[in-house]
Structures are given as C-alpha cells and as structure tokens.
Amino acid sequence: MYGNFKAVTPEELNKFLACFSTEEISALLYVDGELDTSGDYLEIEKKWQGLHFLLTGSPHGGTPPLSWCVFGNHSIGGDEEPIFFGWIGIRYLLPNEVHQVTQALSETSHELLAARYSPREMDQQEVYPIGIWERDGDRGLDYILCCYPAVVSFYQKAAFQNKAMLMYITS
Known about the structure:
The protein has helices at residues 10-17, 22-29, 48-56, 68-71, 95-106, 110-116, 119-124, 133-136, 138-145, 148-160, and strands at 2-8, 30-31, 34-35, 41-45, 74-75, 91-93, 164-170. By secondary structure, the protein is an alpha+beta fold. The strands form 2 sheets. It has a 5-stranded antiparallel β-sheet. Strands 2-3 form a two-stranded antiparallel sheet. A hairpin with a 2-residue loop joins strand 2 and strand 3 (34-35). Helix 3 (48-56) crosses helix 6.
C-alpha cells in the first residue's frame, strides 16, 4: 500500500467533492488507466503510517495539525459515508489547513521524530508495513525519515500556491 499526496486548486478540489462514486474519483485520478502522477504529486511509498506515527506518537489519530499531514481532516463523500478509493478513501485538507500543517511541519525537527521512533511499540500497534520495525531497528527510522524533507517541501509549495491537499493509499 502506497501513500499518495496530490496538491490541487480549490476548483479541482470541488470536482472531487462533487463525486458520488469510486468510478467518478478514478476518472479524476487516472489517465489512460494509470494513476496520474503529473502536476503536484508526491508518493511516499510504504512510509505513510510510519511517518504518521513519528508525527503523532500514534498509528491513528493524534493532535492536529500534525495528525492531518498523512490522513487529512475530511473525507471525499463526507466523514459519515466516505467514498472508498484505495485503503482509506480520499482524505483532504482545505488550503488554510495545508498552511497549518506546513507551519507545524516546519517546527518539527528530525530529532523530535527520531525520539518518537519505537520499533517495539510500532510492531505491537501494527504500524504499516507490519512487522518490520524491530527487525530493521535504526534502518526503519532512516527508511521513514528519508521522505520527510520531500513531504515538508511538498507542503510548503502547496501552501505557497494556496492549494488544497488530497491524500490516498493505493495498492
């Protein structure tokens, strides 16, 4: 399962918000049968839940705005009945929330993230990819942190352009 981010204009976000089915969402995310990775797009591979854990100390939830970085704050289709696409459906942030996450990320150091790294707890809480953290030790931390500068930069660019953010997990 791969974590994906796509920065979109408010107008593009409105097209997603008008979707009522997985097929409609797929039509917006795919071009010629392939996931559209053009434009403002970032994939963090299998690091998504590990990054969330380092940002929040939890595999799910946590305190905003850092808890919004990977899992967003809203669901396409609404929080009561999200339209599922991939593992979690498509989550999103509004432009003002992208700004909040960007500010929080800029204040979050590698040292703080490293201090939250707990291979035993991550394995016990089944942080994806499941079962690798104790096995890999410090290499697991390096694996997650290698994507952090790209995530921070991606959010900074989106905030500067006043864009919204889509997050989704594909297989």
